[in-house]
Amino acid sequence: MYRSHTCGELNSANIGEEVRLSGWVQKVRNKGFMIWLDLRDRYGLTQLIFDEERSEKALMEKAEKIGREFVIQVTGKVIERVSKNPNIPTGDIEVLVTQFDILNTSLTPPFTIEDETDGGEDLRMKYRYLDIRRNPVKNKLMFRHKVGMQVRNYLSNAGFIEVETPYLIKSTPEGARDFVVPSRMNEGQFYALPQSPQTFKQLLMVGGMDKYFQIVKCFRDEDLRADRQPEFTQIDCEMAFVEQEDILNIFEGLTRHLIKEINGVEIGDFPRMTYAEAMKKYGNDKPDIRFGMEFGELNEVAQNKGFKVFDQQELVVGIAVPAAAGYTRKELDKLIEWVKRPQIGANGLVWAKYNEDGSFKSSVDKFYSQEDLKAWAEETGAKPGDLILVMAGETRKTRTQLSALRMHLATELGLRKADDFAPLWVVDFPLLEWDEETERYHAMHHPFTSPKKEDIPLLESKPGEVRANAYDLVLNGNEIGGGSIRIHDKKTQSKMFDYLGFTEEEAKAQFGFLMDAFQYGAPPHGGIAFGFDRLVAILGGQETIRDFIAFPKNNAGRDVMIDAPAKLDKEQLDELHLQLKL
Amino acid sequence: MYRSHTCGELNSANIGEEVRLSGWVQKVRNKGFMIWLDLRDRYGLTQLIFDEERSEKALMEKAEKIGREFVIQVTGKVIERVSKNPNIPTGDIEVLVTQFDILNTSLTPPFTIEDETDGGEDLRMKYRYLDIRRNPVKNKLMFRHKVGMQVRNYLSNAGFIEVETPYLIKSTPEGARDFVVPSRMNEGQFYALPQSPQTFKQLLMVGGMDKYFQIVKCFRDEDLRADRQPEFTQIDCEMAFVEQEDILNIFEGLTRHLIKEINGVEIGDFPRMTYAEAMKKYGNDKPDIRFGMEFGELNEVAQNKGFKVFDQQELVVGIAVPAAAGYTRKELDKLIEWVKRPQIGANGLVWAKYNEDGSFKSSVDKFYSQEDLKAWAEETGAKPGDLILVMAGETRKTRTQLSALRMHLATELGLRKADDFAPLWVVDFPLLEWDEETERYHAMHHPFTSPKKEDIPLLESKPGEVRANAYDLVLNGNEIGGGSIRIHDKKTQSKMFDYLGFTEEEAKAQFGFLMDAFQYGAPPHGGIAFGFDRLVAILGGQETIRDFIAFPKNNAGRDVMIDAPAKLDKEQLDELHLQLKL
């Protein structure tokens, strides 16, 4: 037996007991006549002590050879500490060692195994197994497990069945690129890894499974942006005989449950907002509503006052930055610089200070009277002491730019509080999205999303205005889930493929099995999928997902620890009927 | 709202209520003046009624057009049935329909959606979404979910953390073939899909995760035998600071819990048997111990009696078939035929009837006296009325043949009862296994398995006799789990790679990261993995796994429903820097 207790559980109630512990040596303090070691395992730290008076000389000598991260097993007696440490649960006691074994030695680790490590990102990834020993990473992985268990138990109790869908499926060119898997047994043919179990979960609904969920890995061969992973985890859900309202209620319940159980925060009904409203008020379909700074559209009050820069634009729009009227010229210039960076791409930024005394001072005083600026304040909701920031240009682009500025300022001003949770449903997404490159409409969600019944007549005339039965769940400015009520009849689905520019042959080749299934009594159905990595990170109060993934890949899609991907032997390629074409 | 109740929940307590149901039409009975429909959903069946007297004519006419598997939504009143059906929970009531909508029509399904269907395996697989509507399949998938939840909750409560390990990893030529995934971003390089998360779980132990589990998909590109799938699910577990005894206890606990919670059967301590004993007594390292028929070795009592067929052989071994002394000549000939089939490959079979009167009658009476045969009975444990069957030959081969015969007879005699659970630990597996083809030793489990300390001196002299800290959990003659205590120091692991014929370079290229990790304080650790598909099937009282998998592949590794694998566009291959070599 390697241990009678873990390193996290001994306290003053155990004083006098003989115990056995195993773990890693976190720290060594050698005063010559006394040696302290901090022994660490997943559960905590326990202080070990050897001293001249009470420990055998041979034991002291052996203890001196122990280094950081050695794995040892000790037997000893729990004694009261002279100087207690109130910061850790075991801080009242220490273990006077009477016997120990070195179970394994350790080289000096390439970075310190401390909460604040000296290791950079690259080094930590290469030695991820050492990084995981650090509390911040270990705790995030344990946190992820806890969230996963809560999700599973909640959905299972609500009658959902977790069904494992296959990983070796069929490539569908629509959407992002698939990862593919050559088949050795079926010469010249390939499986694809699923981008999501979308079609399978719909088939499960056709199959009468009624309520399905799965926490499942999905794969997308995209050029990776920061904080995207080629493999990621989804909470995938689908229900039959439901309308949008049913889905929103069930998954609002799940999310509320998680925030309560995991974060101890009780949340009431989630607000709902149409896509159109979200774009108008926040310039963004996943607004962070933990703070205000809603957009005020200023066309009526800021155009035709002689300021040509505004007059020619489609949209003039501003926000009020709370208590920022005191910004210096330098601070304002920095903001103007910020929006002009290529990542944002704005032409400029107009500012107006709403002074505490009720007066206004702006960068465009030449064109606007105090009364004009007062009207700006009204539209943006500015109060004395606030700073109004205004941008103008093409509607879509300007909204995006102002949204970026709004988020930037909120972060700077500390308004995006990690322990504050502001969920929001965004509904009534457009069904179709115009793609400049291919010059045709694409499905905004995916080709299985149903249009709103009342908008179907618009499909021919104004396809861009057709709204879908599609919804996103937004939490603190992040889309954590999205879904839709699906099309469930072959006729509508065929028509949709048609609108999306699929030929009949293409639709049949790629989705024939789904279309076939729809002929045999497909029920009305819909669902949602949550990005599990992101959900866990946000519940954990973080913006980046990487440390919530045990073995993440870097931005080139590489696992630097195991050095994958890697070359294959020619023999292996031959068996797969493949050759490289470099 | 599509329904106020499911089709499984209404009973006499609901009589008089107005309800709304949605589901599939299971059956139509049209008596002209009266129409009954059985409406089905995941939860059950409810009888709907339309009649001349109480239903509107238009409604009756509409109802007449409904076919099997149509999806309908009905509103109606719960009434008492005239002729009750005590076999279903809703059998006391029916719903008098006042309004209904056809939500979707259905073509006539290619096979009947009944417990006993007329659809063959191929048709059922092609239309799996219809097959899943059938109770036997649907219930198996729900059963699988239940087992999964029990496993997760048990392990989580025992302090295990579920950690998701990556699916895009590195190919390791050892063992079965990997499925590989070409990397678009890393030209000429490939990921591999994991055959198991073995190295990652060991790295998690090095990382201090202490207790890990995961229910996870694994992939093996093997030539498929019946009832093997290229992708399969494993309950993968690993623990640090444990000895074999700790692992056996924990996972015996899990298995006992499952059998109790799922099957309602209480099981005491699991028996343990060494590999050597299992081979000697059952000719098999996964014996079914639900019944006896243990092997009796007969060399001492059957050799040197003038019967040359036995004299020349390495092993003469028999079993007693209970109450089978009455087998006719024809039945005995059939058994002899059976063992001579190429799948078994025996040369023959000697029989001896132990008659109720205490006398013997055998196929080799010329060579053996009554007293000789009495000795056979003693060795095989035969009682009057039993039939002794004896085989002879090379030890390993003969044991395998007799084991096959033992299982065949047990099945024939109904001794393998599905609701009887006989778990067994098989321990002390050999570390190495001689491979005739490559003429070298292979790791019997995998190259990370530790040898028993006391056997290490034999590694040089008699490698085949070295026992490993390796164990299998056997349930009803199936290996449901297997694992080992791992090597945790670089020196021993290097030596093991050496014994297994890896060059230093090969070992470094394939397992360098694990060897590196072992230098930084790897703890003693070990684990186990359960075949989840098989475990679920056995707990469900079945021998085949296919119907416990939602969308299984056929023996050619194809998904016939979605028709995968399939060809790729040339464009897609180009992007992956690949070309076919057919």
Mean pLDDT of chain A: 94
Oligomer: homodimer
The number of domains of chain A is 3
Largest interface, C-beta within 8 A:
A-B, 126 and 126 residues
Determine Rg of chain A (CA atoms, Å): 30 Å
User: CATH H-level name of the largest domain in chain A... which superfamily?
Assistant: Bira Bifunctional Protein, Domain 2
Q: Spatial order of the strands in the main sheet of chain A?
A: 6-9-10-22-21-20-17-11
How far the N terminus sits from the C terminus of chain A, by CA atoms, comes to 55 Å
Percent of residues of chain A in helical segments?
25-40%
Q: Structural class of the helix and strand makeup of chain A?
A: alpha+beta
- Strand composition percent of chain A: 15-25%
The global form of chain A is: globular
Task: Give the biggest sheet of chain A.
Answer: 8 strands, mixed
* Annotated CATH topology of the largest domain in chain A: BirA Bifunctional Protein, domain 2
Q: State the low-pLDDT regions of chain A, or none.
A: none
Domain Aminoacyl-transfer RNA synthetases class-II family profile (chains A, B): 151-552
Subcellular location (chains A, B): Cytoplasm
Region (Aspartate) (chains A, B): 198-201
Catalytic activity (chains A, B): tRNA(Asp) + L-aspartate + ATP = L-aspartyl-tRNA(Asp) + AMP + diphosphate
Structural account:
2 copies of one chain form a homodimer. The first copy, chain A, is an alpha+beta fold and 582 residues long. The first copy, chain A, folds into 3 domains: 12-104, Beta Barrel (OB fold (Dihydrolipoamide Acetyltransferase, E2P)); 139-272 and 424-548, BirA Bifunctional Protein, domain 2, CATH 3.30.930; 291-415, GAD-like domain (Gyrase A, domain 2, 2-Layer Sandwich). Chain A contains 17 helices and 23 strands. Chain A has helices at 57-64, 121-126, 128-131, 135-157, 198-206, 244-263, 275-282, 299-302, 308-311, 329-340, 370-380, 395-412, 458-461, 490-499, 504-518, 532-539, 570-575, and strands at residues 18-30, 34-41, 44-51, 71-80, 93-104, 161-162, 180-182, 190-192, 211-219, 231-240, 272-274, 296-297, 315-321, 350-354, 360-362, 387-393, 423-427, 432-435, 440-443, 470-475, 478-485, 525-531, 578-580. In chain A, strands 6-9-10-22-21-20-17-11 form an 8-stranded mixed sheet, with helices on both faces. A 5-stranded mixed barrel of chain A has the order 1-2-3-5-4. The longest helix of chain A has 23 residues, at 135-157. The first copy, chain A, is globular and about 90 Å long. The mean pLDDT of chain A is 94. At the A-B interface, helix 3, helix 4, strand 6, strand 7 and strand 8 of A face helix 3, helix 4, strand 6, strand 7 and strand 8 of B. Strand 23 of chain A pairs antiparallel with strand 23 of chain B. Chains A, B: Belongs to the class-II aminoacyl-tRNA synthetase family. Type 1 subfamily.
